[in-house]
Protein: UPF0271 protein
Organism: Jannaschia helgolandensis
Amino acid sequence: MHIDLNADMGEAFGDWRMGNDGALLDIVTSANVACGAHAGDWDVMARTMTQARDRGVGIGAHPGFPDLQGFGRRRMSMPGESLANLVIWQFGAARGMAAALGTQVRHFKLHGAMANMASEDIEMARAAYSAALRVDPDVILLVLAGTAQEAAARSLDARWAGEIFADRGYNDDATLVTRGQPGAMVHDPNDAAARMVAFVKSAAIIANSGRQIPAACDSICLHGDGPDAVAIARAVRAGLETEGITLAPMQGHRPS
């Protein structure tokens, strides 16, 4: 049994700092790099990709809504064509930077409100993923397991990997409990580690209600922007390794 550990990073902007990317890159096997809309800039992207490349960490593009003030966590409505162009613009920047640094973008993961909306709306998910696949037909779509994101990726015959979250609570439909609501966040590193071991070994998402939802648990997200981020990441990695679960960059499910 093996699994990928991913974290969102490259989310600083100019002199403003966010997260502890250096520490996380020593723990994770994949990095989701912000593409400049919700966070990040050209220098931050270059620095983050260089560090990931040098550590052998897989690089992913992490596009979001153009919402620096809200960190991409505020919902926005836009026509499908505009959403597609927004995705292509960000993904293209990430691919260009990676190529200039002698590496590549292996996976693609939506950020924040864009991801949450796509987990509920298959047509929105299809619009975003179709746009990404126009840029790179072989990119791995990192999808929120068991949601409309996964259904969209499957319907497009795309290469995909299912993602679960170490520090977030789940609703009974496999979507994430909205931030600010009771049970939305997991702050205790030991609790996060125990949950992830249980998810992976049972091949299921365990909702806050206790309901088990069968799911492809291919990659665990370790958010990089919280005060407990590094401690949770270390605990989750240690918990998995103690159970004999191998850590490796995601490979994705190939279309049949």
About this structure: The chain has a mean pLDDT of 94. The first helix runs from residue 21 to 25. Residues 2-247 form a domain with the TIM Barrel fold (CATH 3.20.20.370).
